[in-house]
């Protein structure tokens, strides 16, 4: 039922607090199953028998413009088909997302999205069952707020 869902536009500002990104532009894509985040670099390693990924967030997405490194256990590695039909094996992590006043965990894969207009893509699994997308709308949650990144 649509009554209990939040209606958002095809692009919105969202937050990834565990990755120190209070605001990042995201394309809400119901045609994509999984969500993706642009990272500058990544490397996998094993710690205490668990596979982890160390990755650098794009400094353009951060106010201080410094490359920040993060690490997270790899939840899974899955083959992802991009919009051009190319398949790649990508690491998936879990992280909280803040969107429309709600915070909840989502799975995202880490990849180089440098050539894309949006550093983040939110797929169906991050939207269901909370959010409906109206493709006629855009930035329904408001515009970029530089003060939020202070």
UniProtKB/TrEMBL annotation:
GO terms for molecular function: peptidase activity. Residues 7-140 form the Retropepsin-like aspartic endopeptidase domain. PANTHER family: ATP-DEPENDENT ZINC PROTEASE DOMAIN-CONTAINING PROTEIN-RELATED (PTHR38037:SF2), ZN_PROTEASE DOMAIN-CONTAINING PROTEIN (PTHR38037). One of its GO terms (biological process) is proteolysis. It comes from the Bacteria. Keywords: Hydrolase, Protease. The keyword Hydrolase applies. Gene3D superfamilies: Acid Proteases. Pfam families: Zn_protease. This is ATP-dependent zinc protease.
């Amino acid at each position: 039922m649509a009554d209990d869902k939040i209606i958002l536009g095809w692009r919105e500002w969202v937050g990834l607090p565990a990755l120190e990104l209070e605001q990042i532009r995201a394309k809400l894509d119901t045609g994509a199953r999984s969500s993706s985040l642009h990272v500058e670099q990544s490397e996998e390693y094993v710690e205490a028998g668990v596979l982890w990924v160390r990755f650098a967030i794009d400094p353009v997405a951060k106010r201080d413009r410094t490359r920040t490194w993060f690490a997270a256990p790899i939840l899974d590695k899955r083959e992802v088909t991009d919009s051009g039909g190319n398949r790649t094996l990508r690491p998936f992590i879990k992280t909280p997302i803040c969107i429309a006043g709600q915070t909840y965990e989502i799975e995202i894969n880490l990849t180089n999205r440098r050539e894309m207009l949006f550093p983040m893509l939110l797929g169906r699994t991050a939207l269901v069952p909370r959010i409906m997308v109206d493709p006629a709308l855009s930035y329904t949650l408001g515009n970029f707020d530089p003060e939020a990144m202070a």
